Amino acid sequence: MPNAQQAPLKIAVAGLGTVGAGVLKLLDAQASLIEQRCGRRIEVVAVSARSRGKDRGVDLSRVQWFDDPVALAAESGADLVVELIGGSEGPARDTVATAIETGKHVVTANKALLAVHGTEIARKAEAKGLTVAFEAAVAGGIPIIKGLREGLAANAVSEIHGILNGTCNYILTEMRTTGRDFADVLADAQALGYAEADPSFDIDGVDAAHKLAILASVAFGTPVDFPSVYIEGIRQVSAVDFDYADQLGFRIKLLGIARRTAAGVEQRVHPCMVPKTAPIASVDGVFNAVVAQADFADRVLFVGRGAGAGPTASAVVADLIDIARGRSTPTFGVPADRLGAASPSPMEARRGSYYVRLMVVDRPGVIADIAAAMRDQDVSMEQFLQRGRSPDAGVPVVLTTHDTDEAAMQRALATIAASDSVLEPPRMIRIEQF
C-alpha cells in the first residue's frame, strides 16, 4: 500500500491538445485530492507537442519540453508516458512502443491505436511487467473499461451494445427533434465544435468501430479484432425515417453491438431502430451509453459524456491514480497470452427484423412484386405503411419484417432494387429489440 513517503509518480505527456491540456489542468486543480487518494504526488516532468508557443492555459515553465514525442518517451526520465497524440500509426505508435521498450507504463486515450495494435502492445507491456491503461479511449468519462474488466470480473458477458459516438448521437437527436435533414444538422454540429471539419471517421462509423473492437476484447477475453467489425455510418438516414420510426414506436441510434453467437463473435456498427422503451433510446445529444449483458449481474447500463476535455481528462487521471497506487490488471482483463481466439460471425449471419423504405411508382401490381421478392427469400413482412396516392408517380412505402437472416434480406432488397417500379435505392435500417 502506498504511503505519504513514497516518491512522486513522474509522468510525461505527449500531445497537448484539448485533452492533454485538460489533463494538466485537472492534475493541478486536484493535486491535493489526488495525493490524498494515492498516498503520493503525480508530477508532470515533461511534455511534447507540435507548437511550443501556443497558449494552452497551463504553466509549462517548470517542465522539460520535447519537440519529438518519441524522444520524450525515451529520455524524459518519467515513470509513465501519457500518449494523447492520436492515430494508429506514426508518432503515436512509436511513442508507445518506445515507452514500453524503455520500461515505462503507458496511459492512452488512443482508440485507433488500440483497435489496430492493442493485442501486440499488451503482450509487450505485460512481458515487461508494465501497465497499459486506456479508460479514456472508450466513451470519455464513462468508466466502462473498469466496469467491464473489474466490476463485472466475476461474470461472463454475452453481449455489449452502446452509443459510442457523441457526434452521431447529436446529429440523430437533432434530426429527430427538429425534422431537419442530415446535411443541415451536420453543418450545425461542425459550427458548434461537435463535428470535425472532416467528419468522416465519426459519421461513417469508424470511430465507434474502434471503440467497439476494444470493448469486445475486454468483454469476451479475446484478441482485439478490428478488421472483423462490420461498419455502416449515418449518411443515408433521412428525416423521413424519423417520422416512420416514431409511428412504429422506435428511435434511431447509431449503435456498436458485440455479441457471442453460435456462429462466433459478431461485431457491428450501424444505424438501428430500437424500441422507445429501451433505456438506450432516451440517451440523446452528445451523451454516450453502454449496456452490458452479464450472467450474474444481468443488464448493466453506463451513461455519461463521451468526449470533451473534462470527462476525457478525468478518465486519463483515474488511470494515473490506479498506477500511482500500485494497482495493476492485465490490459484487456485477461493476460495477453491467454486471450482466447474466437471466430468472427459474418454480418450475413445476423438474424433479426428490418425496416425498409422504398420510393415506388404508384400503379397496380407494384406492392405484389415487392411482396413476391420478399416471399421468394422466406422474408415475412410484419407491417406495411403507404402515405397517400399519386398514380403513376413516386410514393414512399415503408415495411417492417419479422425476424430473418441478413443474407436473405439482402437478396430480397437486391431483387427489389432491380425493379423499374422502384425509383431510388431501398433504404434499410436494422431493428434491434433490446
From TrEMBL:
Amino-acid positions noted as binding NADPH in the UniProt annotation, renumbered to this chain: K111
Enzyme Commission code: 1.1.1.3
Pfam families (alphabetical): Homoserine_dh, NAD_binding_3
Active-site residues annotated for this sequence: K211 (proton donor)
Biological processes annotated in GO: methionine biosynthetic process; threonine biosynthetic process
InterPro entries cross-referenced by the UniProt entry: ACT-like_dom_sf (IPR045865), ACT_dom (IPR002912), Asp/hSer_DH_NAD-bd (IPR005106), HDH (IPR016204), HDH_cat (IPR001342), HDH_CS (IPR019811), NAD(P)-bd_dom_sf (IPR036291)
Highest taxon of source: Bacteria
Annotated binding of L-homoserine, by residue: E196
Coiled-coil residue windows: none
GO molecular function, one term: NADP binding
Pathway recorded for this protein: Amino-acid biosynthesis; L-threonine biosynthesis; L-threonine from L-aspartate: step 3/5; Amino-acid biosynthesis; L-methionine biosynthesis via de novo pathway; L-homoserine from L-aspartate: step 3/3
Name assigned to this protein: Homoserine dehydrogenase
Source species: Azospirillum thiophilum
